[in-house]
Amino acid sequence: MQKLNDGNKESFLYPRSRYYGSVKPENLVFNANLQEFAQKISYIVNLQTGGKLSSEVAYERIETLWKQLELSKKELGISTELNQHSGGL
Questions:
Q1: CB 3.0-4.6 Å disulfide test: which of 2, 6, 53, 71 passes with 48?
Q2: Domain boundary assignment for the chain
Q3: 56 to each of 52, 59, 60, 63, how far by Cα in Å?
Q4: Over the chain, what is the mean pLDDT?
C-alpha cells in the first residue's frame, strides 16, 4: 500500500472548499475557521454515533467549538447584517 505524503494526508483529513463570498481577509479567515469547525463536528458526531464518545461529552465538545467559532467571528469583526436573514451566527 502506498503511503500518503503529508500534503495528501492533510487534504484528505481536512478538506477545504473554495470560498465564494466577499474577498476580505477577515472573511477568508472566518471561512477557514468555519470549515475547520464543520470538520471537527463531523468527527465528534461520528465518534458519538460509533459509541466512542458519550452524548454528554459530544455535546460539551460541540458547545466548546461553537463558542470558539462565535468568538472568532466577534474578534474578526464580521458583520451580522447578512446573518439576521438566515438565522446564522
A1: 53
A2: 24-76
A3: 12, 5, 6, 10
A4: 85
Residue type (1 letter), 38: A
**7-45 pLDDT, tens digit each:** 777 666 666 678 787 889 999 999 999 999 999 999 999
Check residue 2 and give its pLDDT: 61
Q: Evaluate the CA torsion angle 11, 12, 13, 18 in order and state its sign.
A: positive
Among candidate residues 46, 16, 20, 48, the one with its CA nearest the CA of residue 32:
16
pTM of the predicted protein model: 0.72
Distance CA 78, CA 70 (A): 10
Looking up cell 469583526, which residue turns up?
Answer: 77
Find where cell 492533510 sits: 10
